[in-house]
User: Which sequence fits this backbone?
């Protein structure tokens, strides 16, 4: 890293809104339909 530059980490760190929404959707599908629940791509 160049001198005089800083890296700032946000706290708390987490997933982007899309990933968070996808995880919540899968959790709701599991509650409603039971397992297994298949998704097209990795979350």
Assistant:
């Amino acid at each position: 890293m160049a001198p005089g530059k800083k890296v700032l980490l946000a706290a708390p760190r987490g997933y982007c809104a899309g990933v968070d929404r996808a995880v919540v959707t899968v959790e709701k599908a599991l509650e409603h339909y039971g397992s297994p629940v298949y998704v097209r791509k990795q979350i």
Observations:
- The chain has a mean pLDDT of 87.
